[in-house]
Write a structure and sequence with these properties.
The chain has helices spanning about 1-30, 40-50, 60-65, 120-135; strands at about 55-60, 70-80, 85-90, 100, 105-110. With about 140 residues, it is an alpha+beta fold.
């Protein structure tokens, strides 16, 4: 009988530890993924407003596409039924401090979240750390 209690205690301890490890992982997986493109960011803004659309099209002039300090693009939102709503998106630092203007949908200067950056490759993080320790800054 004593061995049975010890078995149950160990099984309960293992189950509790497994649950303790699984909860943070589940919380991370349940988190919505941050937008990585301007089109995804616009789609998120429209979803928050409950706007149903078919397609988002971004277009830039040559001058806009070669500018590295900021991002600016024309936005066309294709709605069900063939209607097209035009506007623009502008960012002060390419992927940060962005504003959306779609007056046909009642969106006027809405601040968009900053785009998520891809995490660096593990080997690149190691190389940068090794260079920093050697006194070389990138």
């Amino acid at each position: 009988m004593n061995a049975h209690r010890r078995y149950l205690r160990h099984a309960g301890l293992i189950a509790g530890l497994a649950l303790l490890c699984a909860l943070p992982v589940a919380a991370l997986l349940a988190r919505p993924r941050a937008a990585r493109t301007h089109a995804e960011n616009i789609a998120g803004a429209l979803a928050r407003r409950g706007v149903v659309y078919e397609q988002i099209v971004l277009s830039q002039s040559y001058e806009e596409s070669v500018e590295f300090d900021f991002y600016r693009a024309q936005v066309q939102v294709h709605m069900p039924g063939g209607q097209v709503v035009s506007g623009w998106i502008g960012c002060e630092d390419r992927d940060r401090i962005c504003f959306l203007e779609l007056r046909g949908l009642g969106v006027r200067g809405e601040r968009l979240p900053d785009l998520a950056r891809d995490p660096p490759w593990p080997w690149l993080t190691w190389v940068r750390g090794a260079l920093r320790e050697a006194g070389i800054e990138l």
